[in-house]
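Co-fold these.
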Amino acid sequence: MFPLSSTMELSQAASLGLAVLIGIGFGFFLEKAGFGSARKLVAVFYFYDMAVAKVMFTAIVTAMAGLFLFSSIGLLDMAELYIEPSNYPAAIIGGLVFGLGFVIGGYCPGTSLTAAATGRIDGLAFLAGIFIASYGYAELLSGFDTWLASSAHPDLTLPGLTGIPMGWFVLLFIGFLALAGWGMSIAEKRFAGLRP
Amino acid sequence: MSTITASSSSPSAGTRTSPAPFWNPYLAGFGLGLVLLAAYLIAGRGLGATGAFSSVAAWIANALSPEHAQASAVHARYIANGTPFTAWLVYLLIGSAIGSAVSGYAAGRWTISIERGPRVTDRERLAFALVGGIIAGLGAKIARGCTSGQALTGASVLNPGSLVFMLSVFAAAYAVAWTYRKEWL
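Predicted complex below.
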């Protein structure tokens, strides 16, 4: 039955309308989490407010558990989901560069939009930066991009690679979230003095 | 224009209305996870924030000079997928802007402002935000995704490349955070 994109013919208007609806939910929860605020976001890197890690990890575990449940009762064909091809050098280099930009700019792309949409001019400046980078990347690094695409491995997942069923990973992640939540609450108390 | 400095106790303190508190992070994360799950169940793919920018960039490049745009494999790939007016990721971002604005307005957090730490000026903060956006944008292009398209979306299906990306983001951020503490603390 799911994903709907594979089991039923959605008109373009319906598909784009659903994109807007999903986007509204996305923006709503980002804003409610406080992610329209650069200082709330970077606080995770100074340990006095770990909300970014808590929200991200909870979202990942929730979605992972949901996908597993839908798949195990036969309502979802996991093979139909799009899996971004894996390119480890690109993931490491891109990730390191991205992390630097996150600390300097105070946002990531999705949250800078939330910031701009709630009136933050610094969020707008960050968005302008992403656009400049996107345009510049296409103009200057398209050869590199072609290499990236050609050297990526499609459809890799940990259950597929290890042969360990997804349910065990769900349990592992839930356990890790519980442990990390406990650790983060200690870190927040210890580093409370850094809060400006 | 109000300027938010770190001397205020909450992001919008100092404005006339006192904003509602942010949600419990585990509750907000649960909601975000349900949205991500819905994206997978409906569209067969997760969320994404940076793809829309490339789509718009390709459209503009094509409008300026189709020959020049086709010379870039990246522009050409996005042009082949259609204009931004029919791009799924663009509509996702339009929705996200609406959802953010509605939530922020309802909570009393909608305010024209520049958010910064107490030891930098507004002008410095805007320069940092622009440069940070360029750097993060470049990283997202190299990694083919950002915190939404790689970290959240990929990690939830246990994509090993996405998990490596997420670890790299946090490793770099924690490594440089102390260097940039004057901007925030």
